[in-house]
């Protein structure tokens, strides 16, 4: 039955490979179940309701991805979008979380229309091949940076970012918290690299589990000392089973009266959600598809409509349940790197999200220093695509470079795409290559420029 539905042989995969890929993807993104309630609760929403809504919406979106596209992409509440929801819309702007949820709902409905009418697909196909490759490489850079931060290897400093200082940790006494986390993350990264070189199946998942297990041993012998105030928690589960919280306080809590009476303010809120989500999703899909060889000879992705529609459906359902924008996760690349090629990977991840509701004490104990090595190694795998960029054609190489660097340094997939588009269009116009530009490239470049002036 699984073979007939997911076409495993046609996609060169197996049930075992897909299950391992789904589990790997879940392990690298389960942190969202802890982080999303923490962020959204700043808006006044109930933490327990948010956690349940996030898990259920993520599962439904993953199932939709499998049903509509048969692709291995996993979805959950997008980071950055949840921060905009809680800290900007509900914080700086002072609007209620019900207003923000209404904006997310409308965003999801608009995206359903755009996906059905091929507008989002047209945007995807309008991106030149060199920029598609650059987006994949840029996401590799971006996800490596996230991994380094999660591991505590790269930290805040007077130079914006800096390297973890081992000597300072010894003097300050943080060697038994952040120091241990850094050492375990480095160990985990080297172990994943070794197993990859040796061709060991499930290398990324084994890396996460072994690093986590070693962390438990170090905590038991007193070498790793949890310090929750500093963000270093116990890596030993305090329990295994728990009942999920009710979503009653967040389900269908919309404020349509505000949307009608303050249409100007609502459009500003809505546009930011729309802009970031559409290009984050397109960027993530391009990056993961490029890495896994899913793009055809024309640089197009078959079943792209189903992928984008699943993403839109996830956002709409998430708003109804009571969580911020559900979007395709860049961590999907970890499962794809394990060989995931079909919707069975997404289904596996979705099932695990539902199980996490009942085993949340176990899943929420997975430390970031155990998952960070997987993210960093995925970054390496995605960066390999940089050789496919024609560095001799400067009108394409320079925009590719801008895309890659801005994605990491601006800490934003959508900003990396925006700067890459603008640079590509301007250079082609100024060098007499305007015949290589599609009409949509002009439109999108103008939209990107206006975005920085208006939002």
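-> sequence recovered:
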């Amino acid at each position: 039955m699984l073979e007939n539905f997911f076409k495993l042989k046609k996609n060169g995969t197996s049930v075992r490979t897909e299950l391992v890929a789904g589990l790997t993807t879940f392990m690298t993104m389960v942190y969202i179940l802890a982080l999303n309630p923490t962020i959204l609760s700043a808006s006044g929403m109930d933490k327990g309701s948010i956690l349940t809504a996030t898990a259920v919406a993520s599962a439904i979106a993953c199932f939709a991805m499998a049903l509509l596209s048969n692709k291995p992409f996993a979805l959950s509440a997008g980071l950055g979008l949840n921060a905009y929801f809680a800290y900007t819309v509900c914080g700086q702007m002072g609007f209620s979380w019900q207003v923000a949820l209404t904006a997310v709902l409308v965003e999801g409905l608009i995206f359903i229309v755009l996906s059905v009418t091929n507008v989002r697909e047209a945007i995807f196909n309008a991106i030149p091949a060199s920029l598609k490759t650059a987006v994949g490489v840029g996401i590799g850079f971006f996800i490596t940076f996230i991994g380094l931060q999660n591991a505590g290897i790269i930290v805040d400093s007077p130079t914006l970012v800096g390297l973890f200082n081992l000597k300072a940790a010894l003097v300050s006494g943080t060697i038994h918290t952040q120091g241990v986390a850094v050492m375990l993350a480095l160990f985990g990264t080297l172990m994943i690299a070794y197993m990859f070189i040796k061709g060991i199946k499930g290398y990324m998942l084994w890396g996460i589990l072994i690093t986590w297990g070693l962390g438990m041993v170090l905590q038991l012998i007193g070498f790793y000392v949890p310090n929750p105030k500093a963000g270093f928690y116990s890596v030993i589960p305090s329990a295994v089973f728990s009942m999920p919280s009710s979503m009653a306080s967040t389900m269908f809590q919309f404020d349509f009266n505000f949307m009608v009476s303050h249409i100007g303010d609502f459009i500003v809120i809505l546009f930011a959600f729309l802009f970031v989500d559409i290009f984050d999703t397109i960027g993530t899909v391009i990056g993961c598809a490029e890495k896994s060889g899913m793009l055809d000879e024309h640089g197009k992705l078959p079943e792209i409509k189903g992928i984008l529609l699943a993403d839109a459906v996830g956002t709409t359902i998430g708003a109804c349940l009571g969580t911020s924008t559900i979007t395709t996760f860049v961590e999907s690349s970890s499962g794809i790197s394990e060989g995931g090629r079909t919707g069975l990977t997404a289904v596996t991840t979705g099932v695990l999200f539902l199980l996490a509701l009942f085993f949340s004490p176990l899943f929420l104990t997975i430390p970031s220093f155990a998952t960070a090595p997987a993210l960093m190694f995925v970054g390496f795998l995605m960066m390999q695509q940089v050789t496919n960029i024609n560095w001799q054609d400067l009108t394409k190489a320079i925009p590719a470079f801008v895309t890659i660097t801005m994605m990491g340094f601006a800490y934003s997939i959508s900003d990396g795409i925006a700067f890459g588009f603008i640079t590509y269009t301007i250079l082609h116009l100024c060098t007499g290559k305007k015949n290589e530009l599609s009409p949509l490239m002009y439109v999108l470049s103008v939209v990107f420029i206006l975005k920085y002036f208006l939002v």
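The radius of gyration is 22 Å.
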